[in-house]
């Protein structure tokens, strides 16, 4: 007990005196296994070191902090992001009187639309929010980017690799050194600049902050944090119905048999890279049905009750790798049905924040602090399981319950940060606004193709209720804000319907820019493509790349021909007409070297497609398949989107202070925070302060 109290005491010190504690051993499923002993050992050592040095550190940081705040015009800046909140809906419901706290903030300060990025997708926009730069300077252009050697899509913002050095001991391969982890976003976030000038920040779940970076403050990573399998979110679905086998996508489907009221199966964990030719580590479980719509699951000798249509609390799971090392995760179970068939859903297995298997926060101990003080919480970057609903494994109520359980965890973190961070910056991003609008937008449009054969009444007010919940949260935030605090509320983009999908690779094929080996068979990951005759291809949610000689492995487009080819594709694509809807499908096409500036422009897509409202890159396009039709209906539950022409999906911006800039950009938020604290804005920033001390306001351009 004394030791546990000592550890808790250290964790509190870790918040006041952050120290990098990147403790991990060896790779597993793309990241490291960490034994509980090793974490406790490192934590104990750092606690001892902190106790020895804290008086000197405290005096130094007190002096430095006072010096930094001497030029400050505020004591605190609070920035709250509601991913995807739409300005049109916000304004409509403010006018109807159902968003009183937003209306209050508008009347007392500022409400305007916020310019987003090209393209209007979260990783790009939040990277520009962090750095104050256009994508040509921070290098994030989409969720995905092509590997220029294999042409296969890969995550644009983070890479995790295994340690290449190791020694063999019997059946084990012991890695030497830490695994490779790289945040691919360039430039630096504004909280790093503030920290260099002595200003402390608490940064919670801002997208594209994994792996975590060192700075003067604390942070919890968000988008691109993997699950314990190393994926971006793989749920498990167990069913005894033989007719369902092979029916669902987006997760793992594991057939089970119900025998005498008992189901036996397993949780699938990470690949065991500590063993030579090691497969997945699996943990068995047993479910015993009680016959009254309830059941009991036994996992690692512990029993937990299961109730139909209810989530369990987070349950800890240990996946033993050998040599005393374990990968620790948490998951929730959701019993869907006990009769006539057994059906069970299990969330992706999140990295356990109480015993992280790799760094998900800065310092390493901050994730542990949050778990110890606030309880277990979701750590997966894309924690809300949209594919569970898309595949109809989950129903709408189950999806909404999951989203709001995670949302409440984030609320607890924010209010803890507001209480602990009295000076400096608090920034927190909420995802419920984005996830729910993606999955329930069809209810705002009775003619949406996704409504075919589905209910269109029961959840028609879901998005309105979502905005009312955010208004209630805003009211509670306002109650914690004093006169010396600047509050900024923003979204990275707005939202529109997604009714029709466009397969850009099919268009490129039919127009002679992309070649195939024989006839396109709809194979994923460009398996049909003949690269030695292909001049252009599409990856991601609207980017077209030239197959450039010297850049791509089998590139054939000469540098001298690139400009002409880009303009040719641009002009032809803008003429794409949807005969079924009798409308243009593409509003504009942008050349990256005309809209971006910076050292990474050559890594961007050569063309960015600005789709008309209602259109987006199709699902088959996203996987590198060439479909029979260029344009097809989108019938998935994922019925709303923002991957359209950026000028049509601006975000929101509220502030408790007046601003005079009539066209604020998401790139302006970081520079504004720096300026309010009297910190010089770096010359590389494209954004400007919205509240400069000299009163001179400049309009910014994307």
In this structure, how is the largest beta sheet organized? 8 strands, mixed
Distance between the termini: 56 Å
> Averaging pLDDT over every residue, what do you get?
88
Structural class, from helix and strand content? alpha+beta
Lateral strand order in the biggest sheet = 4-38-27-3-26-11-12-25
Q: What layout of secondary structure does this protein have?
A:
Layout lengths: L1 H15 L8 E4 L2 E3 L2 H34 L6 E7 L4 H9 L4 H9 L1 E5 L7 H10 L3 H4 L5 E3 L6 E3 L2 E4 L3 E5 L2 E5 L3 E4 L6 H7 L4 E4 L12 E4 L14 E5 L11 E5 L2 E2 L2 E10 L8 E10 L4 E6 L2 E6 L7 E8 L2 E7 L1 E5 L5 E4 L3 E2 L9 E2 L1 H11 L11 H5 L5 H25 L3 E7 L1 H9 L21 H17 L6 E6 L5 E7 L1 H7 L25 E4 L3 E4 L12 H15 L3 E2 L4 E2 L1 E6 H4 L11 E5 L2 E4 L1 H4 L8 E3 L6 E2 L9 E5 L13 H8 L26
Parallel strand pairs: 3-26, 3-27, 11-12, 11-26, 13-14, 28-35
Antiparallel strand pairs: 1-2, 4-38, 5-6, 7-10, 8-9, 12-25, 13-23, 15-16, 16-17, 17-18, 18-19, 20-21, 21-24, 22-23, 27-38, 28-36, 28-37, 29-30, 30-34, 31-32, 33-34
Helix pairs in contact: 1-2, 1-8, 7-17, 11-12
Note down, in words, how this protein is organized.
With 702 residues, the protein is of the alpha+beta class. The protein has a domain at 498-648. The strands form eleven sheets. Strands 4-38-27-3-26-11-12-25 form an eight-stranded mixed sheet, sandwiched between helices. The longest helix has 34 residues, at 36-69. It starts with a helix and ends in a 26-residue tail after the last helix. 52% of the residues are buried. The model is unreliable at 1-41 and 696-702 (pLDDT under 50).
């Amino acid at each position: 007990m004394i030791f546990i109290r000592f550890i808790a005491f250290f964790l509190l010190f870790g918040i006041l005196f952050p120290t990098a504690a990147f403790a991990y051993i060896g790779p597993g499923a793309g990241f490291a296994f960490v034994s509980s002993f090793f974490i406790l050992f490192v934590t104990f050592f750092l606690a001892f070191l902190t106790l020895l040095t804290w008086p000197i550190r405290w005096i130094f940081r007190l002096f430095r902090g006072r010096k930094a705040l001497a030029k400050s015009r505020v004591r605190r800046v609070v920035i709250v992001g509601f991913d995807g909140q739409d300005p049109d809906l916000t304004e409509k419901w403010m006018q109807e009187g159902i968003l009183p706290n937003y209306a209050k903030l508008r009347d007392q300060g500022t409400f305007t639309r916020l310019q987003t990025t090209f393209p209007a997708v979260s990783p790009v926009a939040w990277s520009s929010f962090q750095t104050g730069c256009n994508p040509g300077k921070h290098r994030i252009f989409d969720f995905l980017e092509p590997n220029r050697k294999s042409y296969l899509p890969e995550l644009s913002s983070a890479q995790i690799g295994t340690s290449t050095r190791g020694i063999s001991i019997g059946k084990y391969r012991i890695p030497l050194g830490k695994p490779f982890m790289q945040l691919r976003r360039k430039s630096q976030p504004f909280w790093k600049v503030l920290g260099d000038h002595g200003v402390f920040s608490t940064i919670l779940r801002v997208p594209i902050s994994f792996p975590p970076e060192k700075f003067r403050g604390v942070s919890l990573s968000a988008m691109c944090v993997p699950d314990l399998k190393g994926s971006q979110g793989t749920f498990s679905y167990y069913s005894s119905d033989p007719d369902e086998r092979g029916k669902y996508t987006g997760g793992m489907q594991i057939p089970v048999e119900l025998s005498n009221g008992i189901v036996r199966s397993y949780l699938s964990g990470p690949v065991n890279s500590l063993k030579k030719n090691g497969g997945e580590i699996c943990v068995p479980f047993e479910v015993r049905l009680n016959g009254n719509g309830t059941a009991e699951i036994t996992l690692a000798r512990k029993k937990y009750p299961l109730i139909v249509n209810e989530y369990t609390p987070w349950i800890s799971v240990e996946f033993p790798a050998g040599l005393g090392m374990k990968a620790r995760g948490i998951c929730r179970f959701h019993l869907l049905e006990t009769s006539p068939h057994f059906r069970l859903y299990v969330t992706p297995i999140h990295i356990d924040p109480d015993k992280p298997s790799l760094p998900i926060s800065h310092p390493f101990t901050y994730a542990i602090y949050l778990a110890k003080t606030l309880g277990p919480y979701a750590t997966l970057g894309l924690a809300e399981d949209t594919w569970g609903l898309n595949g109809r494994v989950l129903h709408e109520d189950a999806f909404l319950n999951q989203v709001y359980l995670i949302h409440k965890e984030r609320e607890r973190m924010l209010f803890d940060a507001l209480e602990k961070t009295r000076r400096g910056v608090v920034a927190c991003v909420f995802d419920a606004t984005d996830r729910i609008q993606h999955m329930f937008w069809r209810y705002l449009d009775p003619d949406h193709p996704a409504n075919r054969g589905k209910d269109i009444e029961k959840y028609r007010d879901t998005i309105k209720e979502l905005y009312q919940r955010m208004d209630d949260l805003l009211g509670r935030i306002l109650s914690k804000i004093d006169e010396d605090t600047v509050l900024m509320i923003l979204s990275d983009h707005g939202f529109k319907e997604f009714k029709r999908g466009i397969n850009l690779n099919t268009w490129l094929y039919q127009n002679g820019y992309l070649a195939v080996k024989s006839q396109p068979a709809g194979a994923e990951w460009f398996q049909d493509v003949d690269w030695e005759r292909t001049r252009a291809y599409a990856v991601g949610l609207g980017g077209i790349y030239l197959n450039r000689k010297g850049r791509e492995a089998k590139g054939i487009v000469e540098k001298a021909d690139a400009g002409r080819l880009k303009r040719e594709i641009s002009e032809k694509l803008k003429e794409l007409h949807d005969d079924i809807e009798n409308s243009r499908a593409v509003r504009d096409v942008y050349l990256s070297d005309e809209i971006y500036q910076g050292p990474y422009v050559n890594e961007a897509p050569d063309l960015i497609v600005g789709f008309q409202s209602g259109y987006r890159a199709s699902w088959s396009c996203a996987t590198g398949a060439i479909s029979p039709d260029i344009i097809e209906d989108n019938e998935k539950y994922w019925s709303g989107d923002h991957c359209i022409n950026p000028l049509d999906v601006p975000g929101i911006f509220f502030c408790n202070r007046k601003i005079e800039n009539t066209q604020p950009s998401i790139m302006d938020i970081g520079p504004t925070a720096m300026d309010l604290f009297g910190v010089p804005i770096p010359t590389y920033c494209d954004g400007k302060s919205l509240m400069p001390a000299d009163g001179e306001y400049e309009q910014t351009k994307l």
